[in-house]
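tool=predict chain=A
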Amino acid sequence: MISIPQQALTRVALGLLTLTAPIAPASALTAFTIEDLVHVQRVEQPVVSPDGRLVAFTVRETQLEANRREAHVWLLELTIPHAAPRQLTGAGSSAFDPRWSGDSRTLYFLSTRSGSTQVWRIALQGGEAQQVTHLPLDVTSLRVAPSSERIAFSMEVVAGCKELKCSRERLAAPKGSEPSGMLFDQLFIRHWDTWNRSRSHLFTARIRTDGTIDEPVDVSRLDADVPSKPFGDEADYDFSPDGGSIVFSTRPGGSEEARSTNFDLYQVPADGSAAPRNLTADRPAWDGTPKFLPNGDLAWLAQDRAGYESDRFHIMIRDAGTGATRPLTAAWDRSVDHLESSSDGRELLASVDEIGQHGLYAVDAHSGQVRRLVGTGDVTAFSSGAGELVIDYASLSAPPDLYRVPIGGGEPERLTQMNGPMLAGLAMSEFEQFSFAGWHNERVYGYVVKPYGFKAGARYPVAFLIHGGPQGSMANQWSYRWNPEVFAGAGYAVVTIDFHGSQGYGQAFTDSINQDWGGKPLEDLQKGLAAALARYPWLDGERVCALGAR
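tool=predict ok
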C-alpha cells in the first residue's frame, strides 16, 4: 500500500472494501471477473519445428473446483491457412515444455503421466507417447541437442548425495513424529515459498536407439543452481550447434551468493568428460541467457555493474574461432529481456520493454543494428521459423495467443483463439496510454482503463494500481495477478503510472531512483494521478483506492 499526500487528491481510500462500486447497467456482455481470470487458458512456450512446418505450444487450464492446474501440449500446422490447433497430449496429467528433434519428426516434452515429471516423446507420424526417462527425481527443464542424440535436463539434488536415490530420500517429507527442523549455514534459506534444501543441477544423457537414455551425467558439478532460482529455466543453458558442448549460466554458491549478481557462463563437454570452464571470469556482473548461433558464435545477455540487478542487459558475442568477445548492442539504450537466434543465424531476436509496451526487435548479429518487428502490446514468447516468427502475443485487454510475424516485420497475424468462446460473452474495457510532466518536468507515461458499463457523463471510483520492483512497469500487457480488467469489471476506472525507475524508458530513467525510492516515484504518482483526473473527467477524485503490487 502507499498513501498519497493530501495535495495530490482530496481523499484516498486505503482498501477496496471502503468503496462501493457502482451497479453496472444491463449489457449483452457480462463483466470480466476474478473467476474469469482464473479460468483463462494460458497459452505459452511456442516452439517452431526446425523445418518450419509446425509449432508446438503449451496450454494451461485451471480446474477451480479441483484446485489444480493441468497443462497440455498442442500442435498447429503453419503451412495450412486457417488451420485449427489440435491437442496432442491427453487429460488426467500435465504435459509441457515441448522440444523438437533436429529432424522435426519427434517432439519431446515433460509430463507427469507416470506420477512424477519425466521426459516423454512422441513421433509425429503416429503412435503413442513413449517415456524417455525413468528417474527417481522430477525433471524441471529440458533441451534436446541439435543432432537429437542427447538431451540436457535439470533436477533438484542434495549436496553430499552421490546417487539420485539418495536425493529423493533426503528430500522426502518427514513422516509421523520424525524431526522436521532444518539447519542452514549460509544464505539462501528459501526462495519465495520454497525452502532451499537442494541445488538444481544440469544433467545430460545419450538417447538410446530404443528411445530411453543412458545413465545421466551431472555436467554442472558446482555448488550452484543450474538453472538459477527461483525463476530460471532452459534459457539458462544451450547446446552448441554440433551438440558437443553446453554453455550454462550460474551464480556460484558461498557466503556472497545472496547478495551477488555475478552470474558467469561455463562451457562443458556434453558428455561431462571434463569440468566446466568459466568463459566470463573477467566480468564481475551478470552474464546469462546463452544462445548459440548456427555458425558456433555464442551470444548472451550481460550487465556491466556488479551488484546492481536493475542494470541494463545488453547483448555480447563470443567468436567461435578466436574466443574474442565484444558488445553487440552497447549503444542501444534498451534492456533485453529474452534472447533467441533467427533460424538462419543472421539476426538475434530480442524482446524489450519500451515506452509502456513489451516489443520485439531483430538485431543484426554482425553490426548490432536493430530493427523493430513488433512495437505495441506484449510479446511474451517467440520462436523463429523459415521466414517468419511465431509469437505469443497479448495486451492489457487480451490474454496471450499465437500470432505469426514475417521476419521482415509487419502486422501480427492471429493463429489461435484459445479463449475465444469464453471471451465472446465478456466485456473487456477500453484503455488508453497518456503522458504528463513528472519529476523535474520529465515525460512520464501511464494508462487509464474505463470501467465496465462506462457511460459518458457518469463518474467512477478509481483503482490506482502501483507497480513494485520498484524497477518494474505497468505496461500494455496481460497479468494473471494485478489485472486491470478485473478491477474494471468490478466497476472501477483504473490508473497506472510508470514512474521514474520504471523499465523501458532508458537506463538513466531506471537509475534515477537509486537512493531515492520514496522521492521521484512518489512525485510522479502524485502528478500522474492529478494529470489523469484533469484529463478524464469521469474519474472521481473523491473515491481513489491506491494499491501497491510487488
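Confidence is low (pLDDT under 50) at residues 1-26. The two ends are 10 Å apart (CA to CA).
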